[in-house]
Amino acid sequence: EHFLFASIQDEWRVSDNFNAVIGLRYDDYEAFGSVFTPRVSLIWNTTPKLTTKLIYGSGYRAPTANERFFRNNPVTIGNENIKPEEIDTYEISFDYQWHENFITQTTLFKYDAKELIEYIFSQDTNGNVAQNIGEQTGKGFELSVKWQLLQQLNIEANYAFIDAQNTANDDVPDIANKQTFIAVNWSPAENWHFHFRQNHIADRLRSKIDTRANIDDYTVSFAKVQYSDLTPGLNIS
Q1: pLDDT in tens, 156-211
Q2: Alpha carbon distances (Å) from 21 to 11, 39, 126, 156, 184
Q3: Which positions ≥6 away from 116 have C-beta within 8 Å?
Q4: Residue 86: which of 28, 135, 26, 139 has the closest Cα?
Q5: What is the pTM (predicted TM-score) of this model?
Q6: Which stretches within the chain are classed as H helix?
Q7: Cβ proximity of 84 and 64 under 8 Å
Q8: What average pLDDT is seen over the chain?
Q9: 82 closest CA partner among 133, 136, 137, 25
Q10: Which of 69, 75, 186, 188 is the most buried (most CB within 10 A)?
């Protein structure tokens, strides 16, 4: 089977404070035909401190070899006729520079996914066969902060929330509906560097048919201290 692709992108300066970036990608698969995935970004320098961005993008996921060709499997069976999964995404973002050392970004987003590959029981094969029947929609927001508190100290943080539903209008299981992230970089003295970051993952649901206990929220923390140039070319962390 062969695979070919071509892409083109153009940046258009509409005015002194307004740019447009337009792109198109074409993928051709011998097995299941061609896919077009356009993308458009509109960037508006609304004020000297505020930048507004409108972004549309599309994408796809080609079926895996297992999803197409699995045969002698007691659980799942492939389907050579399935098509790629498709998604359209929409974003509006506001970047505001409160001070040269303090920037915030607020992003609202929405996505629509279709032709998702799911396994459905078939009496003809007496097994679960891959089929393009799934759909998913989601919407949410993300808040980000970048703060250069001192020349030797900077902090980054963000909070993200998503609300996603599947074909049956049920909340999508397993994904994190809420995520919080913070990172700190500090150089208290020459050759010394300290890095700390922390992720908090919350509100992950199980599938309705999963009878196990709810998934606990959890936090992952990472800290690193480094001393550079102990001898020329030698760092210790």
Answers
A1: 999 999 999 998 888 899 899 999 999 999 999 989 999 999 999 999 999 888 88
A2: 4, 8, 50, 28, 33
A3: 85, 132, 133, 134, 135, 136, 167
A4: 135
A5: 0.84
A6: 65-69
A7: no
A8: 93
A9: 133
A10: 186
